[in-house]
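Reagents: none. Just compute today. FAD dependent oxidoreductase.
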Amino acid sequence: MPSLADHYYRASLDSDHQWPALEEPTRARVCVIGGGFAGLNTALGLAERGVGEVVLLEAQRVGYGASGRNGGFVFGGFSRGEDALLRELGPARARDLYQGTLDAVELIRARIRRYGIDCEATEAGVIWANWFADPEVLRARQRLLAEHFGVEWQWWPRERLRERVRSQRYHDALFEPQAFHFHPLKYAQGIAAQAQALGVRVYEGSPALALERDGEGWRVRSERGEVRAEQVVLACGGYLAGLRREVDAAVMPIATYVMVTQPLGELLDAALQTRAAIYDSRFAFDYYRPLRDGRLLWGGRISVRDRSPQQVQALLYRDVLRVFPQLSGVRIDYAWSGLMSYARHQMPQIGHLGDGLWLAQAFGGHGVAPTTFAGELLAAAIAHGDERWRELSGYGLGSAFKPAGLAAAQLSYAWAQFKDWFKDNSERRDR
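Predicted 3D structure written out:
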């Protein structure tokens, strides 16, 4: 039995690709700081556009943060709801941004095929299951997506849902057929390897300790080397590098929790007659998916606290049994938490800070497609002067007001969870 503290995605790699540390001074046209999806997609996007002399620095391992240990859902959209985007941006701009994430989903598919990345891509769609009896929330979103974004999610009545998801907990659902799920760390290592094959110099164990102006460019100092670059991309996510105060001050590192069961055999089929990934309609929703080796991956909760594996297991195990009591007694082999970066406006912070300094952060737990979108925007901007990134410029670096902002965030999460609980209990009393 593995140690509970082991990282399932790392433990399940067929081969764990490692890159060297930076150990000497070097020069680059572009230095990307951060080896998560935002940084990797920017570096790969630059290489695919023929930009040479790209260096990527990762403080830990490629995919160390949220990119390599998330739920593995690949679908469109942002953390900010589509209705809010319509109000704030208008129909045309909102649709263009949303379409950018749908295009990113297809780009991920294309790269998996083109580069032969074995990342357990499972083309089974994603189910948004209704925790509550009232179907209007789902119906309203289905109409909004169809009318304003050209996206068709399929309505599943309760009977159809329960044929596939063997739980009495849910009422009805929307099914997103264009979505899929995968092993995120295998994908992260795959695109890092391809970026390297196209000329990007990838360094692990190389934290960026200081960022300083160097004539018309920048100098990035690491522990045993440095990079002198014309342009720099900051893509550090929830693991803040401390390089620019205004950048770090604009995001809150927020934790979410994940665990993975033992191989379940026939028990998995007793819970799921689908290989789709699933999440529910609450604010702090459960998200889960069947894995290729017969395990169930289960995630959920939102908190400013990074908990121990034992605490994560205790919290999430109760959540599993609320949905699938038939899984009582199954062993949990892996449990972990990780940090995401959230902005107060719930949108990514992507763009140009001036003087050749670029930014991609704050993907807020909805990042697989948006980080790919961000990488394309920044790569096109740096390589060709493309200014599409300006469509996101309204979602800037407003202060997150830490530490008070973290306390306020925890209170707002608690309030949202209370509203979910109250609605659920009210419906139960009415039945």
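The radius of gyration is 21 Å.
Action item: order primers for follow-up constructs.
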